[in-house]
């Protein structure tokens, strides 16, 4: 493999060669490919891609090609329109249920349609574009199973859902671009493209802008140029450089590094095997490995392992292939701690080292990572099995507070706190007013530390109390939250206040602490209740709450964004690659959020996940050497992340270092 770019590998054969088929991802990561042409006849056959292999599944009720396939919020896939054997357009639609492996008829569309585009909206409905000028667009409501029509200013070949919920429609062979607002149901013109083009792929970039590249102009000339749409300004800008090859009917897929893989297409004389990567930061295109087959007008789908699967492509071959990109960072083994640890606490030290303390089964032990090695730093004064916190103070010391006190969870949580000094070791400081574990510890702007919620006593009674540690060595009452919180998450907002979210028993409850007035207020509740989730403040001030466990929905792959100015939560339309709890979330220097490990449906996972705030997109990140949950992740000043201990499929003393 090219050390920088990536390469293509064979991915097995479909049950039969097909062209002009439709493909969609399923909620569990499988890929479904339906219909298409076999030789010259549309077919009803359907294939599933899972675990690197293809297998047939239930046939469509109606043979069709040049249709669309869209994953719905219900988990089913909507196949709409297309052309049947003998030609013409279809008015029918049908639904695929991954649980049964069968297709069932859906209600007919208002009109027959083929060669169209489809976009799933943020509200879960599906927008079907017009095929010809003057035709209406269609809206499918998956909850009601009904279709409706809406006017359309013109026919567009491409549609992209923007982060603000509107849809950008472009590529109709003119420079005109339109915006569809699902809230009002109205269309409006936006800025004009720099180049009139059609048959050009359009893709949402990680920063929330849109890339449209190549295609053909009205004179049927194949284009090298590409341009960027900025939703904030409503303007188009040509990219600083052109593509490495003129191409139309190519695919464009964002990979985990944030780059865009542009593959195949045609140039007027042949199907293209070539592919290239667009770098949104540099604005450049770079050739990458060639596909084994020339393809155009082919589906390309992002897989949960970070690869891109391509199928079909106007070729009778049944061969499919995958693009394996260079991962956006790596995890490297950094030795082992002296003691295995689960549910321990960790903190950055002033010298860019890391302190890890307590946990199971190393209740009173502590050690420091620094200079590529681990060393013990003496025992704490109190055993801390789990549920304690470690917070770096501006004095250079680390405050370790609360937790379970010994080898048995029945032993009551204690209020004891102590300090670690890199020079002088451990010393006892004042105790909290209430024993607690699974609380949150958040540094405030004045250097004090807010301890909120948690469970107390052997029964882990959830708490609504909070208190503040003053580095002078005393605790100050911090009032009472509107809700009780245990196994929750907390993060400091840009205005200095602290957001406390979820937990038990009030899994949807949210509270905000105002340090200036030392008071709490209830905030808008989460849309999905959750415990053992993470909360991360983004560079723009919003808060990402990811993963966790819901008593109503189970393990969550759903994330929400909180807007402090509007006191409003929004569920992200794009799901996480994998639902997890007891994971870690770290905001990287460039504003992305890295989710590491956690407990998945298959146990402790080795996968990481990357969130791009600009677009709300999720991607699988690099793989750790071993799966783990209940671990710690500490961000160094230089952007590296030390991941230590945790419960996993092996040695719980190991540590890994993430580097971009």
SSE layout:
Layout: E1 6-13, E2 22-25, E3 31-34, E4 37-38, E5 41-42, E6 46-50, E7 53-57, E8 68-71, E9 77-80, E10 93-97, E11 102-106, E12 118-120, E13 126-128, E14 137-141, E15 146-150, E16 158-161, E17 167-170, E18 178-181, E19 186-189, E20 202-204, E21 210-213, E22 226-230, E23 235-238, E24 251-254, E25 260-263, E26 275-279, E27 284-288, E28 300-302, E29 308-310, E30 319-325, E31 330-336, E32 345-348, E33 354-357, E34 366-370, E35 373-376, E36 389-392, E37 398-401, E38 417-421, E39 425-429, E40 440-443, E41 449-452, E42 455-456, E43 461-470, E44 474-486, E45 489-492, E46 498-501, E47 504-505, E48 510-514, E49 519-522, E50 534-537, E51 543-546, E52 549-550, E53 554-555, E54 559-563, E55 568-571, E56 584-587, E57 593-596, E58 599-600, E59 603-604, E60 607-612, E61 617-623, E62 628-629, E63 632-635, E64 641-644, E65 647-648, E66 654-659
Antiparallel strand pairs: 1-30, 2-3, 3-6, 4-5, 6-7, 8-9, 9-10, 10-11, 12-13, 13-14, 14-15, 16-17, 17-18, 18-19, 20-21, 21-22, 22-23, 24-25, 25-26, 26-27, 28-29, 29-30, 31-66, 32-33, 33-34, 34-35, 36-37, 37-38, 38-39, 40-41, 41-43, 42-43, 43-44, 44-47, 45-46, 46-48, 48-49, 50-51, 51-54, 52-53, ...
How much strand? Answer: 35-45%
Percent helix:
under 10%
Low-confidence region ranges: none
Mean pLDDT across residues: 94
Alpha-carbon distance between the two ends = 18 Å
Give a count of the beta strands, DSSP E runs of length 2 or more. Answer: 66
Please give the count of helices. Answer: 0
Gross morphology: elongated
Q: Describe the main β-sheet briefly.
A: 6 strands, antiparallel
Query: What structural class is derived from the secondary structure elements?
Result: mainly beta
**Assembly type:** single chain
Rg on CA atoms, Å? 27 Å
């Amino acid at each position: 493999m090219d050390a920088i770019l990536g390469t293509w590998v064979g991915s097995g054969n479909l049950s039969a060669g097909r062209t002009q088929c439709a493909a969609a991802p399923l909620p569990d990561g499988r890929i479904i490919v339906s219909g298409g042409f076999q030789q010259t006849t549309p077919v009803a056959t359907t294939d599933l891609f899972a675990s690197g292999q293809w297998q047939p599944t239930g046939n469509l009720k109606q043979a069709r090609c040049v249709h669309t396939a869209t994953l719905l919020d219900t988990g089913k896939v909507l196949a709409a329109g297309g052309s049947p054997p003998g030609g013409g357009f279809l008015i029918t639609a049908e639904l695929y249920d991954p649980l049964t492996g069968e297709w069932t008829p859906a209600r007919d569309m208002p009109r027959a349609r083929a060669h169209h585009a489809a976009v799933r909206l943020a509200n879960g409905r599906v927008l079907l574009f017009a095929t010809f000028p003057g035709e209406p667009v269609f809206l499918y409501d998956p909850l009601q199973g009904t279709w409706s029509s809406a006017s359309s200013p013109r026919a567009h070949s491409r549609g992209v859902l923007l982060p603000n919920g509107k849809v950008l429609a472009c590529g109709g062979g003119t420079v005109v671009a339109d915006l569809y607002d699902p809230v009002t149901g109205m269309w409006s013109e936006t800025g004009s493209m720099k180049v009139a083009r059609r048959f050009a792929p359009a893709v949402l970039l990680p920063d929330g802008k849109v890339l449209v590249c190549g295609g053909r102009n009205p004179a049927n000339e194949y284009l090298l140029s590409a341009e960027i749409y900025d939703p904030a300004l409503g303007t188009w800008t040509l990219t600083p450089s052109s593509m490495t090859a003129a191409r139309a009917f190519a695919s464009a897929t964002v990979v985990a590094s944030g780059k865009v893989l542009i593959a195949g297409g045609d140039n007027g004389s042949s199907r293209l095997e070539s592919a290239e990567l667009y770098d949104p930061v540099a604005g450049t295109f770079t050739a990458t490995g060639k596909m084994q087959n020339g393809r155009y007008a082919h589906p390309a789908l992002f897989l949960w392992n970070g690869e891109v699967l391509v199928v079909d492509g106007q070729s009778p071959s049944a061969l499919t292939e995958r693009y394996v990109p260079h991962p956006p960072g790596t995890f490297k083994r950094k030795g082992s701690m002296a003691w295995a640890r689960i549910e321990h606490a960790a903190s950055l030290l002033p010298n860019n080292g890391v302190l890890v303390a307590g946990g199971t089964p190393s209740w009173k032990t502590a050690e420091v990572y620094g200079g590529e090695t681990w060393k013990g730093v003496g025992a704490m004064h109190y055993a801390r099995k789990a549920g304690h916190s470690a917070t770096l103070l501006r004095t250079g010391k680390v405050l370790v507070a609360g937790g379970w006190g010994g080898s048995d969870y029945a032993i009551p949580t204690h209020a004891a706190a102590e300090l670690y000094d890199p020079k002088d070791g451990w010393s006892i400081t004042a105790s909290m007013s209430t024993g607690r574990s699974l609380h949150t510890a958040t540094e405030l702007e004045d250097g004090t530390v807010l301890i909120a919620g948690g469970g107390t006593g052997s029964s882990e009674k959830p708490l609504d109390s909070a208190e503040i540690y003053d580095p002078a060595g005393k605790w100050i009452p911090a009032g009472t939250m509107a809700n009780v919180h245990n196994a929750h998450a907390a993060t400091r907002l840009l205005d200095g206040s602290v957001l406390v979210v979820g937990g038990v028993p009030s899994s949807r409850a949210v509270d905000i602490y105002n340090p200036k007035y030392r008071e709490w207020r209830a905030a808008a509740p989460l849309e999905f209740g959750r415990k053992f989730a993470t909360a991360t403040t983004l560079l723009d001030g919003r808060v990402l709450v990811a993963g966790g466990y819901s008593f109503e929905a189970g393990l969550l792959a759903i994330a929400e964004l909180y807007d402090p100015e509007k006191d409003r939560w929004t569920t992200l339309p794009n799901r996480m690659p994998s639902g997890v709890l007891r994971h870690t979330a770290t905001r990287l220097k460039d504003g992305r959020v890295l989710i590491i490990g956690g407990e998945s449906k298959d146990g402790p996972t080795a996968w990481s996940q990357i969130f791009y705030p600009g677009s709300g997109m999720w991607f699988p990140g690099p793989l750790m050497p071993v799966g783990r949950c209940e671990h710690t992740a500490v961000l160094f000043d230089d952007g590296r992340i030390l991941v230590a201990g945790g419960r996993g499929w092996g040695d719980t003393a190991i540590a890994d270092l993430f580097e971009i």
